[in-house]
Amino acid sequence: MLRITLDVCASALLVLGVLASDNGLARVPQMGWDNWNAFGCDVSEDLLLGTAEKIVQLGLQDVGYHYVILDDCWSAGRDDNDTLVADSEKFPNGMAHVADRMHDLGLGFGMYSSAGAMTCARYAGSLGFEEKDAQTFASWGVDYLKYDNCYNEGQTGDPLTTFNRYKIMADALNATGRPILYGMCNWGEDSPWKWAQTIANSWRMSGDIFDTYNHEDVRCPCSGDEGINCALPGFHCSMANILNKVAPFVDKGNPGAWNDLDMLEIGNGGMTDTEYKLHFTMWSAIKSPLIMGNDIRSMDAPSLSILLHAPILALSQDPDSTPAYRRWRHRNAPAHGAGPNETQLWTQSLSGGDRAIFLLNLGDENATLSTSLADIFFDSGGARSDEAQMNWDVFDLWANRMSNEVAGQVVEANSTRGVNITSTYFNATEMSWADGLAANDSRLIGQWVGQMTAGMDWEVEVEPHGAMAYRLRSVGGTSRKRDEL
Ligand code: GAL
């Protein structure tokens, strides 16, 4: 029955000739897991199915992680009919079997290919075979395509050439009649944030992330304000590098079409807990897809408590929030990545008139950061704005993180059931993000830590490489104007 409904919807979309970003998918940023960051080419049916089961058992599915994405290195080439064939050693039961098992668990299945003659690891690519491959993916029951950029045979270098190459696959996916989320992965080449919204659900805006906080590396040559005109995306990009690179064009992400800051590194061991919290906070606030990249089968407690943290996930999954943007950056910075004394303020508009703020200390020493309502509401007129005259309750978004003890119990029990997690764990299948936020659910809005009023400075000490994240909620409603106060 469900299947019939899906097919009918998809056919209707097809008749209307809709664009990929109108395929009804990724209205909020997609969430899931991809094997690449932790496993590279070491892929198998066992890995995918074992991970999928854990995603369900550890409560990750119920906070929104949905797609299990198989990355590069899965194929054995093409058969006599030019149809892609799965490597039978890695996938002895074929891809449709993997997809079926994912669907049985209520998860979506993601697949990988490249808009080139070969994938980046030199397996068969889809350039010239787009329709055939889209049909193959659909016949296997694939729900998501990550589409890379290697070996594109020179069909790159200007926006229209790249747009046209990626549009062929967008059209081919739509023509299958199956809703397939389309994640472009051309590393920001030819500035996809300027043109990909009508064909893709997301686009990578940088070279590959590397599990490091702020590492200068010539293989990721562009950073910060230079990122806009970056001709060579490179790889080995640090988290701070990507954060600064996306800052000028965060607003290009919209429902159905998002800037993809690349997969999460939480749990992979290259950053500290503080740095991983910053990573998770900003990827959520900027509304990047949230694709876990660690070994879920050997999840540790601190990583789980970050990945499940609802007050931050609510920034991403709030249907009415917009991507956070950087209000200011104070720095004593080198050309690449973040500077030794760098601090930043980011703000995000949330549903119901709430506002999130993020005070970042990207430097190496403790720093006291300060902001005010005039600063936060600069765009609306600063000190003269209505918002700056209102009183705002301030909620700390990290104060009520699940303890290591409780997260450890979930890992140990292999289940969220039977563990006392009700004060910190938000099951988004029982109540939607929108309803939870409207109901002031404390698991979503964070812990009250004070009030901001007109003219007051909000000062806080932030540890190195750390972020203080707050939700501001106006006291007495969002429509109060100056003369009502
Ligand atoms: C890169 C891509 C990575 C991964 C890899 C596989 O181009 O950015 O995320 O998919 O290829 O070879």
Q: Any overview of this molecule?
A:
There is one protein chain. 28% of the residues lie in helices and 18% in strands. It is α/β, with parallel strands linked by helices. It has two domains: 2-317, Alpha-Beta Barrel (TIM Barrel), CATH 3.20.20; 326-400 and 446-478, Golgi alpha-mannosidase II (Immunoglobulin-like, Sandwich). The chain has an eight-stranded parallel β-sheet. Strands 11-12-13-18-15-16 form a six-stranded antiparallel β-sheet. Strands 3-4 form a two-stranded antiparallel sheet. Helix 9 packs across helix 13. The chain is globular. The chain starts with a helix and ends in an 11-residue tail after the last strand. Mean pLDDT is 91; it is low at 1-18 and 477-485. The structure holds beta-D-galactopyranose. Beta-D-galactopyranose (GAL) is lined by residues 36, 71-72, 119-121, 148, 150, 185, 187, 208. Hydrolyzes a variety of simple alpha-D-galactoside as well as more complex molecules such as oligosaccharides and polysaccharides. Keywords: Disulfide bond, Glycoprotein, Glycosidase, Hydrolase, Secreted, Signal. It is found in: Secreted.
